[in-house]
Amino acid sequence: MLKAPPPSRLSCALALALSACTGQVISPSGRASGGSGPSVGAGGSSAPSGTGGSSSDVPLAGTDPGRVTVHRLNRAEYNNTVRDLLGDTSQPANAFPPDDRSFGFDNISDVLTVSPVHTQMYQAAAATLVTTALAGAARAKLLTCDLTTGETCARTVLRAFGRKAWRRPLTDAEVDHLMIPVTLARTNGDTWETGVGLALQATLVSPYFLYRVELDPSPTSATPHALTGWELATRLSYFLWSTMPDDALSAAADAGALSDPAKLRAQVTRMLADPKASALVDNFAGQWLYTRMVDEVTPDPTMFPNFDAALRDAMKQETYMMFRDVVFGGLSLQKLLLSDYTYANDRLAKHYGMAPLTGSAMQKVALGPDAHRTGFLTHGSFLTVNSHPTSNSPVLRGKWILEQLMCQTIAPPPNAAAAKLDTSTAGTQSLRQRLETHHMNPCAVCHVVMDPLGFGLENYDPIGAYRTMDGTFPVDASGKLPDGRTFDGAAELSQLVAKDDGFAACATQKLYTYALGRAPDDSPNHMDPALLYGYANALRAGGYQLPELIAAIVTGDTFTKRRGEPVAAGGAP
Amino acid sequence: MKSARDSIGQHALAVKADASPKIRRRLFLGGGAAVAIGLPFLESLAPRSARADAPVAPKRTVFYYVPCGINGSTRGDFYPTTTGPGFEITTMLEPLAALKPDFTFITGLENALAKPDGPGDHASGTGAFITCAHPFKSEETIMNGVSADQIAAQKVGTATRLPSMQLGIDGGSSAGGCDSGYSCAYARNVSWADAMTPLPKLTNPSQVFDQIFMGFDPTASTAELAKRRAYQKSVLDSALDDATTLRGKLGKTDGEKLDQFLTGVRELERQAAVATPTAMCTMPTTKTASSTDFETQVKAMSDLMVLAMQCDSTRIISFMLGNAGSNRTYNNLGISRGHHDISHHGMMPANLMMLQQIGTYEIQLFAYFLTKLKAVPEGANDMLYNSTIFFSSEISDGDRHNHDDMPVILAGHGGGMFTPGKHLLFPTATHTKVSNLLTSVIATMGVNVKVGDADGTLAGL
Measured between CB atoms, does A420 come within 8 Å of chain B? Predict the structure, then answer.
């Protein structure tokens, strides 16, 4: 265990200020706690993320790796899986009901439920997928022998397909079972191929395909055990790629190689170099950084007639391409907030007021001092999704930084008219000046922390364009934190956030939640608090490299082990 | 026919065993090219004198959700001040004026268990919208009650191919939290099959269309349809076997997840064995398309709800005009700020005026749906007469986030069980429950089960 770094001034300041603000804290396990105790936010009083930690707060190492609820493939995972299994890029899961989200991610298995609408769509999708596959390029890959020769070939085809689709070898009994629809078709006078088609559908409607199944030798025993190689390969593949294991990973699982940490780590390195790792950009960063939401915002069309599909797309691409560099290009998470370059095209460069670019293709652009852009907090994507349709919202922007980059929980405003901004001064005061009245009434307890962070971004309008005037008022982008420290503008704000210990702890917590599909658990004797504390320290010490954090999580005990669920220990009230 | 059945062997027997008289009639009708399907009420063919002997039209219930509460510039712009049959149509109720004899405005009901633990009124109020249970505040342990529509669906839903349908407009945002520590499951779903199983809604009209006409193929022969069903059943049986085997190897929580899957597959097998529509309806020649225009989409969904009930594909529907705390911008009304933002009105006239606009618009869209229902004749009456539609929101006032004094409209006559056309006022001090009203609503379908925290039915409807 690395020695704990000294607590950062920012996170201490935020924690102290917010302890009165949050009132009620939702602990990582999702159970409401009373909000007592000195620290706040996602770490809760046990602070597994190490936010504001001091050496006396080092969490005790636990022995319980926990368990991950059986995980239904979410829409992205289903789409990617059928792409890799059948070469089908039609993204059939886009028609499935949206996956309910918890903890900010749509891969939390506890809330991935199934309804009759789901099963109906699974069945319909399976039928279409198989028909398409047998009529197209996938046919030759699926039908590796001459089906007209009969049963042996049918079994060969089903066994090979099942191995991939169910992400583990099939037993003989399972192959026998899949032959039932084949026999039915034959009895009806239909071809072997028709029968095998039905069996392929059955494979795709099976829970062994639709769920990532992990079995406990004793389902009611709390004794930890290692995942099987196939289960671990599956966890790893869906974490890094949001899809099924490829042949190399499957072969490693078959050979039992993944129980060797060095070989497991080698797989991580190999897989992070594969283009499929861009799933981390789409699904992890897309949700962590809210980039997906760029498609959903509706800036006032009369105020912002230039906000169109091309600009939306360029904003998303900017953030996604920067995060690609985090995954593939060695860009540190810290530098994501402090980068001296970005990606833009003609449209975005014009919007940002940067030197003109040619063409709609995104290109790498160095950011000089005149560019007024300094990393993620100046990305149009972030600025736009955290604005109101007609106005800036320093509150939303500040709150977002605290929640997504510091993992602090902010209580919503009291439901009282007193909480409202006074509009009578709209003509005589800037938005900032009016917001500052927050600091003089009961709202202050939260807003003295949120608003200054947002004020630092006042140079960017509701769709992220640079400005020096807010209407008729000159922009004041200075901020003062409760501990008295000051900053001016986005660059200084970004420095403050990126170098805060809370940022590393929070990034760790977000990635960990996404990796396991469950939130960190601060139950007594759970491994999570100490592991997260160690991961965050290592992240800081190792230069904020995401691939290193990924490798640490994957080779850690909570990723490679699980336990059953003792009968008496239900989580429900 | 016979040879086809023989040739599919065992599974054909299963199909046959499942077949109700309706199925055989359906099979008999199958193969025709007509797009009018099923066994109609034959309104047009029945002589007027024969109407008394006409089949009793089924009763339907619809649960219609609008987000963010309802506010007007003043209370009196929405809530009538006079009670009884002579109540005044307020400004915001104007779109419903022509339907005054067909709805009852109900003031003062309370959904006490919808109150969240700490913040989270939108998610909690939505989760509890028709469960009238207390949603457990969590992002991982989903616990709610069974919703009124599902209580009814589980009792009488098998009378139709689809026990119930869930429709809506918004799938849900793609990132971020939903509401203050509540899983998005609470914020997006009003229908709950059991404490842990929210039923997601369809938001694409073409998918709703497919659901209504699932399995209907006028070009296929009877034998072909029977074989298709048998093949589909073999696929589902296989999944069912796998799930049953797997279920036996799992602990409590994992097992509960598999139970949802098993329930879903069994339901699908039941649906496949049931005949397609039995009431008069016409399959449109073109599938309803999805629209990016809000009003077009709402109207398409409203039309489809009517169609689903006309075809007797289902008799129970829940519909969400938005999700919990929707921040939709109504640019078509000249409102570019988000609904939720505005709903925290702070008593500011400009905000209240916009909320009045949005609320009136919602009433107008609701009136569209009711008018369509009323336009469907059924025997001596119409479909609105034979239906009961519960209209409300997850909170009452957008700023106060209160769960008492709920805005409620009860439309339809419940097939004669209700006498609408009045304003019922329950003083909030009486804490009269929304759940009692919902218990009365599902009683119109012959389901006498208390909903959520109900302690009876609601008198005076």
Answer: yes
